[in-house]
């Protein structure tokens, strides 16, 4: 059985995690009312994710380069497939826990910076604003459907990856990046409340390092454009300065 074959089966079994946290965190859990989200009128203060000690918090110390290198004898397509699958699963679990704070009321748009709201291209190829929870649900459902599609993620031994696999993975990467960008920009206080910042930072730094190594990331997407900067663009710069990511 191929390496990917074994992964493929676990992909098929993997259930979508609950959208709401299965473990109540008690009365002190911040509600969307007590932690106001106001993407249209952001605080002029530096975001918490850029502040010490949160910006340094990590499960993994050092540079991510070694973690993302292609293992000996591994096929690069399979390596990318396995890692993208893991990034999706981990991000989906985080979002499942944070979903109760990400509502149509708290996040009427898919915000990721002081003047940046992502739009979704609908079936009529029109660009539409969606509430963040709807946007994220569309992304996660779309990626799950790709993972379940044997033509894209072949699970049987002897089946080849399609020539379009790299470009499909780039699309996936761009959309997962947007989910990270929204969570950092709009929900970092809740991540801190859950004391998950070391885990979340390491997951994101790994995602960035992997995306750079295999050219899955378009760095325009990480930084944004003048007037529409992505909040996490500054985090990426900071981590490069700190030596966590390669420049
Ligand atoms: Zn949200």
From TrEMBL:
Which lineage?
Eukaryota, Fungi, Dikarya, Basidiomycota, Agaricomycotina
Q: Is-annotated flag, keyword DNA repair?
A: no
A Pfam family this protein belongs to? Mob1_phocein
* InterPro entries from the UniProt entry: MOB_kinase_act_fam, MOB_kinase_act_sf
Question: What residues does Zn(2+) bind to?
Answer: 102, 107, 182, 187
Protein name, please?
Answer: Maintenance of ploidy protein mob2
SMART domains in alphabetical order: Mob1_phocein
Q: Where is this region: Disordered?
A: 1-44
User: Is-annotated flag, keyword Metal-binding?
Assistant: yes
Record field: compositional bias (Low complexity): 22-38
Q: Which UniProt keywords apply?
A: Metal-binding, Zinc
Q: Which Gene3D superfamilies match?
A: MOB kinase activator
The superkingdom of the source organism is: Eukaryota
């Amino acid at each position: 059985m191929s390496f990917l074959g074994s992964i493929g089966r676990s992909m098929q079994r993997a259930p979508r995690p609950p959208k709401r946290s299965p473990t109540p965190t008690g009365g002190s859990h911040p509600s969307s009312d007590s932690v106001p989200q106001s993407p249209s009128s952001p605080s002029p203060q530096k975001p918490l994710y850029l502040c010490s000690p949160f910006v340094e918090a990590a499960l993994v110390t050092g540079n991510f380069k070694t973690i993302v290198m292609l293992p000996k004898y591994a096929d690069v397509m399979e390596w990318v497939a396995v890692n993208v699958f893991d990034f999706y699963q981990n991000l989906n679990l985080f979002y499942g826990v944070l979903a109760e704070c990400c509502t149509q009321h708290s996040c009427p748009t898919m915000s990721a910076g002081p003047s940046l709201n992502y739009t979704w291209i609908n079936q009529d190829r029109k660009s539409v604003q969606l509430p963040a929870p709807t946007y994220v649900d569309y992304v996660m459902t779309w990626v799950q459907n790709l993972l379940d599609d044997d033509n894209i993620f072949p699970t049987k031994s002897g089946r080849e990856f399609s020539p379009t696999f790299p470009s499909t993975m780039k699309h996936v990467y761009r959309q997962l990046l947007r989910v990270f960008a929204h969570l950092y920009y709009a929900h970092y206080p809740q991540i801190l409340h859950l004391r998950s910042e070391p885990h979340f930072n390491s997951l994101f730094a790994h995602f960035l390092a992997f995306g750079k190594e295999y050219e899955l990331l378009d760095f325009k997407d990480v930084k944004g454009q003048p007037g529409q900067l992505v909040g996490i663009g500054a985090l990426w710069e900071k981590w490069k300065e700190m030596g966590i990511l390669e420049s």
